[in-house]
Structures are given as C-alpha cells and as structure tokens.
Input
Amino acid sequence: MKREPKRAMPRAKSAEKNARSAKAGTRKPSLAPTRRERVQSKEDAIIAAAHKSLTTRGFAKTTMSEIARKAGVAEGTLYLYFSNKNALARAVLAVFYKRLTQTAKTGVAKCATTREKLEFLARHHLESIIGERRLLELIASDVRNTDAYEGSDVYKMNREYVAVFDDVMRGGVWRGEIEDGAAQWIKRDIFFGSLEYSMRTLLMKKRSSKKDVAAVVAELVKLLMGGAGVRTEPMSNRDLTKAVERVDAAALRLERLSAVKM
Amino acid sequence: MKREPKRAMPRAKSAEKNARSAKAGTRKPSLAPTRRERVQSKEDAIIAAAHKSLTTRGFAKTTMSEIARKAGVAEGTLYLYFSNKNALARAVLAVFYKRLTQTAKTGVAKCATTREKLEFLARHHLESIIGERRLLELIASDVRNTDAYEGSDVYKMNREYVAVFDDVMRGGVWRGEIEDGAAQWIKRDIFFGSLEYSMRTLLMKKRSSKKDVAAVVAELVKLLMGGAGVRTEPMSNRDLTKAVERVDAAALRLERLSAVKM
Amino acid sequence: MKREPKRAMPRAKSAEKNARSAKAGTRKPSLAPTRRERVQSKEDAIIAAAHKSLTTRGFAKTTMSEIARKAGVAEGTLYLYFSNKNALARAVLAVFYKRLTQTAKTGVAKCATTREKLEFLARHHLESIIGERRLLELIASDVRNTDAYEGSDVYKMNREYVAVFDDVMRGGVWRGEIEDGAAQWIKRDIFFGSLEYSMRTLLMKKRSSKKDVAAVVAELVKLLMGGAGVRTEPMSNRDLTKAVERVDAAALRLERLSAVKM
Amino acid sequence: MKREPKRAMPRAKSAEKNARSAKAGTRKPSLAPTRRERVQSKEDAIIAAAHKSLTTRGFAKTTMSEIARKAGVAEGTLYLYFSNKNALARAVLAVFYKRLTQTAKTGVAKCATTREKLEFLARHHLESIIGERRLLELIASDVRNTDAYEGSDVYKMNREYVAVFDDVMRGGVWRGEIEDGAAQWIKRDIFFGSLEYSMRTLLMKKRSSKKDVAAVVAELVKLLMGGAGVRTEPMSNRDLTKAVERVDAAALRLERLSAVKM
DNA sequence: AATGAATGAGATTTCATTCAT
DNA sequence: AATGAATGAAATCTCATTCAT
Output
C-alpha cells in the first residue's frame, strides 16, 4: 500500500524555497519571468492541481499521474518539488491553512465586538470546510499520522490558524466578556470540533439552508460566551445574585427600622 | 476503483437469523460446536481480526490477506462472509456501534441526574474512541462515501447510538434542567464533535492525564446544561427574579417612607 | 467480470502516428535506437509474445504474466500499451488480419484468372488459419462479444480482409465468369465458413495431406464458380440434352429409311 | 486457470447410467419415483441448468455455483454426477446433439425429395444454432481441445448428427440427383461451415429476416445439388438415360443394317 | 447420496516511484 | 530541470474443487 523511497532523494527544494523573497529588491526588474519565478509558478501549479484532485476525489483515489496531467508537468517532475505523495498533500494542506488564516485574520479585524468576531470565525470556518471536506480527511488520517506531523509545515500553519481563534477568545476574557473558565485548548476543540461535525450533518441534509449554518453558529457562540451571552451589561450571574441578596437584606433592615420608628 | 458485489453472498451472518431454528432446547446438548456455531464463531473471528487491523493500521493499510491471516482463515473465506473490504469494514463499525450503544445505555441507566448522565456519556464516548480513532476515519471517509451510507447497517447503528444522547437531552429539557434552546441536531454535533476533536488533542499530548479528560467532560456538560451549572448555591433564575421583585418592592416602600419623612 | 479502462492510455501505439514527426530525414542518423523506436519495438514485442501465447494456449489459459515474461517486460508495462487483456488480444487479431490482408492482396494480384484468384485465396486462408486456430476462437467469443466489436479495429481489419474476396468475386461476375446468383454476403459466408470448418477436420485427421487441402479448395471454387468447373468438355447439361435429342431423332429417321429400302 | 483434480474421483456414475433401462420390465410399478428415477431426474435437472447458463453466459462466465443454484442442488452434488466443469459442459453438448439428431431425422423422414431434405436440414440447423451459439463456442474451444475429444460422448453424438446429412447426400448421389464429386467430408464441412458462418452474420444484422435464412438455405442447397438446380426445362436425368438407351439401340440396329449391306 | 463451507492458487489491475535520456 | 516509460510489489477478488459432516 505504501511504497516509501528506498534511498534518499537528492532534492534541493527546501533551500530553493527558503531562498525565495531574499534580496528581491536588488534584482533588476525584467518582463520575462525569472528562473525563480518559473520555479515558483510551477510549484504553485502543482499544488493547485493536487488541491483540486484531493478535494474532489480524496487522497486514496487521487493519483500522481492525474495531478501531473492537471498541472501540465511530467510525473517525474512532481518528485522534483515534493519528495512523495504525502509531502505534496501536506503542502496542499499548508496552503489551505495559510489562506484560511489570512481570510480569518482579515475578517476578524473588521469585527467590533468579541461576539461578532466569534460569529465571523465560526461561519468562516464552516463555509470554508464545507467545500474542502476531503481535505480534512487528510488531517485525520494518513498525512497526519504517517510521518512526523508535529514540526511539519502543516502543523505550524494549523497552529497559526487556530491562534486567530485563541486571540479572540483571550481578548474576550481580558475584557471580561467571557468567563475565564475552561482551558483554552478545550474551548478550541469545542469550537472546531462542533463545526466540523456540523459540516457533516449539513452535507447529509438534502438541502442545507443558510438558516442551518446560522443556527449552528449562533448556538456555538452563545455557549462559548456563556449563556449570559445576551446580556448587555457584563455582570456575571453570580455577582448579580450576590448583589440582589445584599440589596434585599438591606431593604429588609430598612423596613424593620422604619417600622420601629413609625 | 472498487468492485461491488455481483451476487448474493452465502452467509449466515446475523445472530438473530441463526436463532431462528427455535427448538434449540430439544437438541441433545453436545460439547462439539454445531455447524451453525462454527459459522458464527468464524464470522466473529473475522470481524475481530478486521477490527484489530483496522484500528491499528487504518483502512488503507489494512489488507485482506492480513485479516485472513489474523482470523486464521483463507483469503477466499473472507469473501464468503463479506462481499468486499468495504462491507467488512462496515460490519466492524456496526459491531463497534452496537457495543458502544449497549454500554452507553447501561451506564446511563445507572445515573440519577441528567448531569450525571451527560458526564457519563461524554467520558464514555471519549474513552471509547481514544482506542479506536482509526475506526472513526472510516466513518468520515471511504466507507461512508463510497456506497449508499444512508440506509446501511452502520447508519442505523449510529442513529441508535446517538439516540442515547438525544434521549438524555430531551429528558433534561422536559424536566426543566436544560434550556430548550437550539435544535437537537446542533447540540448533538456539539457534543460528539467536541469530544472527537478533544480526542485528537489528547492523543497528541505526550501524556494526557485523567484530569484532561475530566476537564473536557466538565466543560462540555457545563455548556450543554447552561452556564448555571457552576453555581454552588442553587438559586434559580426564578428565585433571582423573585428577589429582584422584592428589592423593587422594598425600594418602593423606602421611597414612600422617605417621602413621608421629608 | 471484466473491468474496462477508466482513463486514456499513455501509449504511442500506431506506426502512422509515430511517423508524424516528419523531418526524420534531418535527424542525424544514429545506430542506437531512439526512444520512439524503442517504444514501437516494445509494443511489437508485446504483441508478438501475446500472439504466441494466444495461438498456443488460447485466450482463457493465456495469462498476462506469461505474456510479460515472454515479451521481456514487467507486467505493469503491458497496461501501459494496452488497457487490458481484451484490448491486447484485439491488437493481436488486428495484426493478424493486417498481415493476412497484405499477403492475400499480393497473392491475388499475381493470379491471372478469377478461378486462380479464388483458388489462391482459399488455399491461403486455409493454410493461414491452420496454425492460428486459437486466434479464431477469439473472434467467435469473448473479444467479439464483450465490448463494442463493431467499430473496433478488429472489425475494420476483418472488413478489409474479406473485401479482397469480395472484389475477386465481383470481378468474376462482371466478366461473366460467375453467375450473379446469391447475395455477396452469402457467398462470403460459404467461402470462409467452409474453409474454417475444413480446417477443423484437417486438424483432426491424424495426417492431413496436401491433397486434402487441394481437394477442399477445388471443390469450394468449383461450387462458387458454378458447377461448370469440372467438365472436361464444356458442354452443359442442357446442350447434352439437346444433342441426345438430335441423335435420337436422327436414328429414328435412319431406321425409317432402312425399313423402306429393305 | 484450470484446476484439474488431484486425485481420481470415486464416482459410480457410468455404471449407474448404463444399468438404466436394463430389466425395466421386471420392476414392480410404483407411483413414487424410484431411486433410479430420482437420480436420473437430478442429472437431467443439472444438465438443464447447465445448458441454460452455458447458452446465455458462455462457458467462462458460467460458474458451478450458478448451475447448482439453478438446478436446486448443492455445489458438491454436481461433482457426484460429473467429474468437472468440462465434463458437465460435454454432457450438455451431448444432449444438445441428441435432440438435434432426433428432430433432424424426424424432419428428413417427412421430406420427399433430396432437395427438400437438404433444405429442411439446412434450415433446421441454422435455426437451431442461432439460439445456442454460445454452445458452439464450446465445440471450437476448451471442451474440444482440453481432454480426449475423440472417443468422448460429444464426438459420438456429433458423428451421429452429421450422419443424417451424410445419408441424405449419399441417397442423392445413389439416385443420380447429385453428382458424386468431392469427398463426403468436404461436402459436410461446406454444409455446416457455411451455415455456422451465416449464423454469425445473421446475428450481427440488426434485424435478420426470414428471407435471409431462406436465401442462405437456397443458395447452399443449390450449390450442393449441382448447378442443375436452375434448369428451366424439366428433363429429368431418367429421361436422359432413356434417351441414351434409345440412341444406343438405334446405333446397334444401324450397325446390323450396314453389316447386311456390306 | 447430499451438502455447502472452506480453500487457495491464481488472475487482473493499479500506481507510487525511479532513472536513463 | 524536465521527462515519461518502465517497474514490480501488492492489492482485491474469483471460483473450481474438496471433504467433513
């Protein structure tokens, strides 16, 4: 099932990639694409082709020759850019996460309140993964398990992506809008886990409406922000209770006092 | 890529069916297994072997010959009981769900309160899937997508399993312990989605403690039962309202008092 | 039972196509075979190997691995050139027909009379198929029935081959050597059907002689050209009848004459 | 591809069959089927089932289990009656030939002239094989080649069948209706070969008409009976013979006359 | 005599990966 | 740097035949 390389592959790739963007300013401008640009665009084409196949057919059914055809390169060329099918899939995931992070950050920046930010993030995530569910299989399976996932590009990009959510949540806590209850990783898992499960349900429904998405998003945000979520004033339930009790007691004493006096 | 069965399979399959011959009591008891018993035990052995391979190596890397070897039968025999690899995987899933449903129901029955029931279900699910994460891949991928998933055995067993959760939730709502907010399917997705995502995090942690599991369970149940869950003293919203009314009334009287005095 | 190709095959296949690159003359001649030449020769080798196996062991008993071994290539390579076993068998048939047509045309061109042409064709066909009877099974069975036979290469080549016979017959009719009786397809079926059946008989005879072949050929041609074929004296039955009647009448007159005289 | 038995099979079959019909008269009549009758009917059922599968799906695609199912017996039972798939197929062929021979003989007996007999035989053969073309594949391939064909039941039955044709032809020759030209086996091959080839053409035609069948039959018979078939004036061979005798007699008298004169 | 579960050799086909050009 | 033909291990699935019951 797996045919791992028998000998180390002589590829210059990483170096190439890292060298990119280096002293771009010093290069003399030219209309014809430079070698570096050509290489980059070819890599992009391969990733785009792989992305398309992966999302439409899934990992197992996607073949390297199919990707090569779509990308307009020879099969052998794929191995010049990526050491194997798994690495290529990981690159696709990395790009996916990069884009996702980008749009998430941009969208969040436009939101005023924590609530709005969370709502945006939830909807954004849900809508994004609905079209790329096959990509998520990758995360849960082979690509993630086979080789060192931690330390890989995908892992890093994933951290960066969820960090957007973490920042929003921490901001909410700091400003007292969200109770500092559970550990952040737990909230994170609840957030993304719920959304991915909902995606499956949505996909199974014959016709999933915008309303369904909205309902999921609303409920999730409500839960994460504390049931109090609808309150305008940010006083906690417990504080309120205490306060009421104090006032109640005070009123009682006043009443007794006045009753005596009168 | 896959070839689905062309003809009906000569298999004895389900226990229910085998029990049919009814007057088992009249047969003279014998220590040697009957033909039917052997068939059943063989099917069990195959499923057990498949389960083991599937959970340890995943669907793609599991081969039929590996399963046959583990089960102690010839490769061809597998196809006597299951029309293809997919069907076998589905049978494994069905057994998994059946067992899961059984233990879930039993456990829930022993719990007194809705809270306890939910906590039990959450912990039970989390602990169960930690060892069988590869099995869950199946649900999310091939087995689910390839053929008519809806209407399949797995689908039915899955419905039965989640129904346990649904019943608990509905019971809680009915008894006023849980707010009847979002649609049931949303709560369900939040519950199971959160747990499965948490499972992944737990598995990635070098050493996931019992405390982590407990924390996830607690937080999830808190959210589903409404934030009120954490209060020490059980003052209900209704109590609070009453108190506010009292304070309001007291304030009114104070106002009158002061009006008299002044 | 059979799985037909799902995707286009990366094959160089036909000679015509390869000749396309046109300025072959400008290329500097080299002794080492070019890539294209190697591809073509490999295809030829595969077809030759398949031909050998097919004719000696028949379709069912011929295995792809056997062909690969004979051709000196890996099994997978076969599928680079032919999408499956059926397609390979059809290619073998196509080559067979091509060669057959070639030699038939050449031979016919050398013959003077229609009779000679038919005799040549009959003998040529009979001798050709005696060594390749297993190939003919293909035509009558799987290869022909499984997929769209009509429109296939084999079909076209077969049409081309039988056209040689058709032309000869039509020529004979046009020149008045053959009576324009039955439909052409009927004559064609009689011609080829008789020969193939005779082949079987010949093969069953412990020692089939040249004389047997000659006898079959002679008889068949005689029939197709009209019974006149065997007459030494070219007098028809009708002529004979007339002659007899004339003699009869003459004898009668003589008798009367002599009776008077005497 | 072939899995021939590894050891001789302990079957009583032949003996059983031959013993049949033995002293039938001595058996006491009974309404319930005897053991022998049951065995015979089971064999018949198997052959009938095999015949159906063989004619509709061909040899390769017909499976023993399919036959067993259709015949209403267990797979193992097939091997009690026939040593392997090939033998079963041969039995089917034998039955086919037996029936064919029977109907051929009956039909021929009802015809007055040689011409009519041939026409009947041709049409009968053509119509019979059109529905059973898959059976004919057997004759041309495996069944015939694999084991000792000569000496087998099929071979004998085939001889018996073609003997019907042979008899008709020999009768025609003896009565002077057919020229005694070619060897009988040649005429036989022409007859059956032409018809089987025509069958293929007929099957390929989108809609083969009765007229097509009639045309083939007419042409074939015309050829076999000699071109005489087309004569306009009906002077029979017998007339011709008489005339010759008269001429001969006349010549004799003339000789005598001249002897007197001289 | 009958059964039918079990066998296991063997067939076709796929495709990630290599490497000579 | 690019190609793409070649590889060959490995996977799934079939089915004639056997044999314990």
User: Anything to note?
Assistant: Residues 35-61 of chain B form the longest helix (27 residues). Residues 119 and 221 of chain B are 6 Å apart (CA to CA).
